[in-house]
Design goal:
A hairpin with a 3-residue loop joins β6 and β7. An 8-stranded antiparallel β-sheet has the order 3-2-1-8-7-6-5-4, with no helix packed on it. The protein is α+β, with helices and mostly antiparallel strands. Helices cover 19% and strands 55% of the residues. It is globular, with a radius of gyration of 20 Å. It has a single domain, classed as Beta Barrel (Lipocalin). The N terminus is likely disordered.
C-alpha cells in the first residue's frame, strides 16, 4: 500500500517537474521584436515602428524620447505603457513565439487616439 502511494507521489512529482516554469515560459518571448503601432481613431500620427527587446518578461526600449514600460506574462499576455513628452498610451494583447497583436488607446496633447499594434520577432 505504501509503495502504491510512493509511486503515485513520484509520478505526480515528475509530472509537475516536467511542466515549464513561469520564468522559463516568459523567456520564450525574450529577444528582439519589431512593433508597428497604427492609429485608427483620433488626431495622432498615423503609424510608428519601434525595435524593442524583451528580457525576462520585461519590455525594454532604449531608443530615445519614447519610454516603454511593460510586462509579458508566461502565457504571452502583454501590457505596456508608452509615454513621450505630452503623449501617453496603454496597450494590451498577446504574443506567440514569433508574432503578436493587440489594441492600444491613449492621448496626445488634447487628442484621444486608439488603434492596433502588431509585432514580429527579429533574430
Amino acid at each position: 500500500m505504501i509503495s502504491r502511494f510512493f509511486r503515485a507521489g513520484v509520478l505526480a512529482f515528475l509530472f509537475v517537474a516536467a511542466l515549464p516554469g513561469h520564468a522559463s515560459a516568459q523567456r520564450m518571448f525574450d529577444g528582439n521584436w519589431s512593433v508597428l503601432i497604427v492609429t485608427q481613431r483620433g488626431d495622432c500620427d498615423r503609424a510608428y515602428r519601434y525595435g524593442i527587446a524583451i528580457s525576462g518578461g520585461r519590455v525594454i526600449y532604449e531608443g530615445g524620447i519614447v519610454n516603454f514600460t511593460g510586462r509579458v506574462a508566461a502565457n504571452g499576455a502583454v501590457n505596456v505603457r508608452v509615454t513621450a513628452s505630452n503623449a501617453a498610451a496603454t496597450g494590451s494583447g498577446r504574443l506567440t513565439r514569433n508574432a503578436g497583436e493587440g489594441r492600444w488607446s491613449g492621448r496626445s496633447g488634447n487628442s484621444q487616439c486608439a488603434g492596433y499594434w502588431t509585432a514580429e520577432r527579429r533574430g
